[in-house]
Each structure stands twice: as C-alpha cells, then as structure tokens.
Inverse folding.
C-alpha cells in the first residue's frame, strides 16, 4: 500500500492530516476553498508539491462554489504560505483553465498527474546515484506526503531500494514540527527501508565520523542561479556536507523552479508562530516570558549543491538554465496539446472571471 | 536571587532537578552516594562542572556511609557518564583527600569553591569580548545550572550585561533534551537578559543573515590540542560560524581540560537512550518500529575555535599548552598550601582506603 497525501473523489478533496501522524491516521474531506486554504496554512497538508496540488484542487472547488471568482480564490490560496513556489504554480494552472473556460477540476487533476509523473522521473533519474552512496541523510520530509506520491528526495531512494541497493536513511527529526521523525520515518517504515531518526544536532557528528555517504533534500523554491529555499536547517546540512566532502543533492519537480527569482535574496522566507517552539503535546518547552523566533525555511546558496535531480535528469547549478528552458518547453507543449484538443472538440471558453 | 544548581547543607546534597525546569522548580536532598550517582546518570544534575561538583559531594557522602571505600565510590560515580572530564576531576579531588585522611566533605567544598571561583574569572576574562559583539548565539546550557554558579559560556555575557552592554542571546533550543529552551532561557529570563529561543536548525539562517555577532559555548572535555567535546550540535555551530566569519568561543574551567587526551579521537562520546528522541511529555514523536541514534556529544576540531576563555584569560588553540601548565601549577599550589596547613595543625592521615 503506497502512501498518498491527498486525492480527489466524488466532489471532495481528501487530505491526510499530516499534523497527526505517526500516532493517528486521520483523513478529512474538503468541499470548500476556505477550508482548503486553512488546511494549507495550518499544515494539515505540507510539502511544496503537495500544497501546490492541494491549492489546485482548492481552485477547482472554488469554481463550483457560489460567489467565487478565480482571482478571489487565487488571492486566498496564495496568501496561505509565501515560500513554496509550487503553491503559485498550482493555483495558476487551474486559474488559467478557469479563465479560459476549461474545466478547473480537470485542470487540477492534470496538474496533479504532472507532479506525480515528474516525481516518478526524479526517482528514476536519481536512483543510480545511490548505488554506491548507501547511507543517505535527509532533512524534513520530501517523500510521498510532501509530493502526493513518490516524493522528491525520497523518490530516488525508493527506486534504489526497490532495485536492491542496501539503502540506509539518516532521518533528521526536523524541529520544530518534526516532519522527519513523524513523516519521513513513517514513510520509510511503511516501505521497509532501514533508517534511524537523529536530532538535527547530530547530523554533523555522523558526517564527521564518515557515516554519511550523501545528503538529499527537496526544495520549496529554486531561483534561476540555483540558490534554493527549503525547510530551515537545510543550509546547515549543506555547509556541513561540503565541509566533510559529502555530495549534496536537491530533488525537485519543475513547479519548484521559479524563473521570477534571480537568486536567493528574492525568495520570501516565512516566519511562523512562536507556539511551534513553545509547546509540544501538553508540555511547555520554554519559560512563558521568553520569546522565540521561528523561520520555517532558510536559503542555501547554489555553490553548496552537487547536483539538482530534476524530471529531465541531473543538473549542476551552472546547468540550471537548461532546466528552466525545459520547464518552459513542457508548459508550452501542454498548452499546445490542449489547444489542438480544444480545436478537435470545438470546445470554447464559456466562463471567464476577472 | 541568583541561580544555583546544587548546594550542601546539614549533611545533605541538594540538587535542583533540571529535568523539571522551567515548568517546575523541584529541589531534592541526597544523603547516599548511590542516589547521587543515579541523579547524575538521569541528568537531574547536568553540565560538566556541575556534575563534577555533584560527584565530589557524592564521594563525601560515601565516606560517611557504611561499607564504602573511596575506590568503590569512585568506580560507581565514574561509571555514570563518560564524556565530561570534570566528573573525574571532582571524584579524584575528594578521593585523594579521603585516601590521605583529610576530610572528604571539606575537600568537596573546596573543589566547589575552586569551580565557582574559576567560572567567575571566566566571566571577567570574557566580558570585554562582548562589548562590541552583542548578538551572541549559545548552544545547550553552560550557565549557572551547568556550573553551580555563574556559568562558563554565560558568565562573560552576565558580566557584560551587568556592565551595560546591550547583550542579546540567541538560544539554540538544543534537542533532544532542550537544555537551551528549558534551562538557558530560564536563567536569562531570571536575570533580565534579552534573548530568543530558536530551533537548532535556525542558527545557520540567522548567521547567514548577519544577525549573529559571536558564538559561545561551554565544553565537556578539552584535549591537549584544543579539540573539544560538547553537547551534540556544537560542531555544527562551529562549522557554520567559520563559514560566516563569526568568532567562536569556548569557555571552560581547568577541570574540563584533560591532559590525558592528546586530541579529540581520545574523547569518549556518550550515546544515550532512543527514548530521548522518541517521546516528549505524553507525545510519541516517531513511529514505534523506527529506530533512533542519540549521541549526547560531538567533538569539534580546535581549528574552529577563535579563543578559549579560561580562568587565566583568553587562549588560542595553539596557546593551550600554557593553560594546561597553569592548570598543573594551580593544583600543585593547592597541594602545597594544604601541606603547610597540615604541618601547622599537626593533622595526620588517619583514614585510608584502597
């Protein structure tokens, strides 16, 4: 049984509540865009590719609700979280369909299929790297939960494991929300891939002792020069990997590549509530009068990246121009295919919003 | 009211239970060495200088219990935790008194006074560094709780704050046991020093954004070449500080300097129970079948240290030979002083154990 973060069925978007894992598996159905927006904001669903798909379906739900225009729905969903590029790509994919009179739900499902397909290709492209680099450290969750199916960072490890490589994963627990210990460990456990959870603090220790062969992470937004945002702590792992001569890989679908960001300084970093550091379960973890700062992401300069693993294969930071061009070509090809399909069926724009 | 980790009064060693802070202030009295050993093992008391003093008093308690020899008490207390050098120095200080017929309790109190005095001098020696480096990151707790009074890493910050420097402390929460958010934040809050708790993952982010002027930590054991062990994650901060051109200071009393360790490879690193990562309060943080690895310390090579802050002032890693010689001279001076005191009072060895 494969892990799925979300799916659409009989008019409802179903989200696996990722805040409750691993102790409870809770699935909730959504029919209204407001509730989908709140689910993204409160991290019922998280991971850049997954929130892009959730937002795409949120747009589709809005198109069936009274009183919603595509612009209003896009504004609401776009205000939920600032960093992940995929959110905006998912919204725009459906908004464009909605504005051009195509079926928004069909567009959302098409967007989903594209993301899943790209993650699958990432798995195939990245797997050969892990034939000889078997002890792999990952940060946060860039697995199926983060990407609907397959994962980005975890996809190559899954494929390598399936092909018989003795993969072992070091799982950074990933404070404050523990996406590593709660989600990545849960996925790996479901699939029988050997792993050990460690405090984020211990990654450097194991790297220095020669017990880490590679690091692989996902991304929330990749700028044109290869600087990228990902879960806070990623920058620390990247610096430590280079210090210890360990290759550092970043796996992402096209939706994470942002042609509008020239470099990392253009990427907005979300700062979340102090409460995520202050409390866990029923326990208070710090004095009430003390303050906390809680950036959810950090930006890692491209010079720390050995290779990006993309749907079209591996790319060095300097070779990213080609990936950006491939991304544009893929979008154009889909538009062209839709254009000819429309021409064939004689369908026309019937709905249009501001 | 100043923070005190432990004190001896009317035949009892009192320990502030550091596991319960900050939500509860619980103090427990101890009269038996077995219970003191268990308190050290389970981290009721922690921090290298504090566990050294607790062990010294544990030896003194053993000397008043039936059936204990100095060797047996030293073996028990020495088996509690392997990394902190201070533990063994504190044990040996009292064992030597016991074996030579001096009063073990007096020796324990003398050892305590030495540690507190050295921490005070560390504060004076280090404070001038922080007149212009005001936003200081620290990892774990090297405050009064870790050192009986004053602190090591926190001592210079306390002194600088008292002298009017606008000190602001970035407090790494320090997973898995949260000595930063629970203990360091609590101490800083008690003393009105502005601070913010951050996830360990966020330290690199704030360093890269130029919001950290210096890093200061304590140590559990310093080898002759300046390699040192400290709470896991210290190595990560040291690498990140150097990457970002930020000075990195290590503050420690003489008891932390280990002449028997030539370099970091000689320092044993304690690995603690998975449970520290698995659960918090009532919450399970990871899948039951997943494994965890939990090294409590890491070793940072001396090349990452800008200066050691010692009771005799600042020392570069290359200047540590002088600190080790000063440590030996201080010990010899105390022995000589005791010798002449003994000669004056005509006191003789009356008790001796194996």
């Amino acid at each position: 049984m494969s892990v799925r973060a979300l799916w659409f069925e009989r008019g409802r978007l179903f989200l696996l509540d990722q805040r409750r894992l691993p102790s409870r598996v809770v699935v909730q159905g959504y029919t209204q865009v407001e509730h989908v927006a709140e689910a993204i904001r409160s991290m019922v669903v998280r991971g850049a590719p997954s929130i892009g798909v959730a937002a795409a379906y949120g747009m589709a739900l809005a198109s069936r609700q009274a009183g919603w225009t595509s612009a209003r729905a896009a504004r609401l969903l776009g205000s939920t979280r600032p960093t992940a590029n995929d959110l905006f790509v998912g919204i725009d994919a459906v908004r464009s369909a909605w504005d051009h009179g195509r079926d928004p739900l069909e567009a959302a499902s098409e967007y989903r299929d594209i993301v899943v397909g790209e993650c699958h290709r990432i798995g195939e492209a990245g797997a050969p790297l892990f034939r000889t680099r078997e002890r792999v450290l990952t940060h946060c969750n860039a697995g199926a939960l983060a990407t609907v199916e397959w994962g980005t960072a975890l996809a190559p490890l899954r494929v390598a494991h399936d092909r018989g490589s003795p993969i072992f994963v070091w799982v950074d627990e990933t404070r404050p929300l523990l996406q590593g210990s709660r989600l990545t460990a849960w996925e790996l456990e479901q699939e029988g891939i050997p792993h050990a959870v460690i405090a984020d603090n211990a990654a450097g220790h194991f790297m220095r002792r020669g017990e880490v062969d590679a690091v692989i992470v996902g991304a929330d937004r990749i700028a044109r020069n290869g600087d990228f945002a990902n879960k806070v702590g990623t920058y620390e792992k990247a610096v430590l990997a280079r210090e210890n001569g360990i290759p550092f890989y970043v796996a992402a679908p096209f939706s994470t590549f942002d042609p509008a960001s020239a470099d990392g300084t253009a990427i907005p970093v979300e700062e979340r509530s102090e409460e995520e550091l202050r409390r866990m379960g029923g326990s208070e973890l710090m004095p009430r009068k003390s303050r906390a700062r809680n950036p959810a992401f950090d930006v890692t300069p491209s010079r720390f990246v050995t290779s990006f693993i993309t749907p079209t294969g591996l790319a060095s930071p300097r070779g990213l121009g080609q990936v950006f061009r491939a991304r544009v070509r893929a979008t154009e090809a889909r538009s062209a295919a839709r254009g000819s399909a429309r021409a064939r069926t004689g369908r026309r724009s019937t709905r249009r919003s501001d």
In short: Chain B has two domains: 6-119, 121-328. Chain B has a mean pLDDT of 93.
